[in-house]
Specification:
Blueprint (H helix, E strand, L loop, with lengths): L1 H18 L9 E3 L6 H18 L2 E3 L1
Parallel strand pairs: 1-2
């Protein structure tokens, strides 16, 4: 029974550490290429959004 409790506690602590939000002021600038294909434009827009909002970087397409 102690083994199960220790295992569950370890997994909960590991999940808490893994999923905790870490933020830092990233002083970065990203340059993304833009293509003529519609699917590539969508991927570029999604990557730009994630880099800009998630990491706080300036994105130039």
């Amino acid at each position: 029974m102690k083994f199960i409790k220790k295992t569950i506690l370890s997994l909960v602590l590991l999940a808490g550490i893994s999923f905790s939000a870490t933020s830092a002021n990233a002083a970065c600038k990203a340059h993304l290429g833009d293509f003529d294909w519609d699917s590539a434009n969508i991927h570029t827009a999604i990557a730009s959004f994630i880099i800009e909002k998630g990491y706080g970087c300036d994105v130039e397409v």
